[in-house]
Write a structure and sequence with these properties.
By secondary structure, this protein is an all-alpha fold. The chain has 2 domains: about 5-60, no CATH class; about 70-165. The protein has 8 helices and no strands. Helix 2 packs antiparallel against helix 3. The longest helix has 23 residues, at about 120-140.
């Protein structure tokens, strides 16, 4: 008999498991991840929440970041770079997935305690998510001109935030 998925069960996976679920939720692979852990709903039906909704619930008091913001930011930069490299190599499916992970980082960053009440920070996070989703769409379309434009927008969003908030 399978265990019912609850927020507490997902949190019990620890930070790595939780973050994996959030990222996989962005990639529509979270059902597979949960089924491998024996946490899928009986009958294999959708379990009614996404990685993003888990992150939102967690931010309301049930989740504590393990990695500091600088560590996560390095992964954003690396993941974006990998997405562009895969796109240039015409590996668009992998590139798109990496761009979606960058978008999910934007969602995650809205929950950083020291900045969650800063409207500029939240706007940059949402802009990062939107720009990375646009990048993923350009990669899905396999359009190098759109990819270049979307990449520039993601990078400009990151640089703007760093100039105005992080490095200010």
């Amino acid at each position: 008999m399978r265990k019912k998925v609850t927020f507490q069960r997902v949190v019990s996976l620890g930070a790595v498991g939780f973050f994996t679920l959030v990222v996989l939720g962005a990639l529509n692979l979270s059902d597979l991840f949960l089924s491998r852990l024996g946490l899928s709903e009986p009958g294999g039906s959708r379990w009614g929440f996404s990685g993003a909704s888990l992150a939102a619930e967690a931010a309301s008091g049930g989740y504590e970041f393990v990695a500091d913001i600088d560590t996560l930011m390095y992964h954003v930069e690396d993941t974006l770079e990998e997405a562009i490299e895969r796109s240039e190599a015409k590996k668009f499916k992998t590139a798109r997935r990496k761009a979606m992970v960058v978008a999910e980082f934007g969602n995650l960053f809205t929950h950083v305690e020291e900045h969650k009440n800063n409207p500029k920070w939240i706007k940059y996070c949402k802009d990062m998510t939107t720009a990375a989703k646009t990048l993923a769409g350009a990669m899905k379309a396999k359009d190098p001109v759109q990819v270049a434009a979307a990449q520039a927008t993601v990078e400009a969003t990151c640089e703007g935030c760093h100039d105005e908030i992080r490095d200010a």
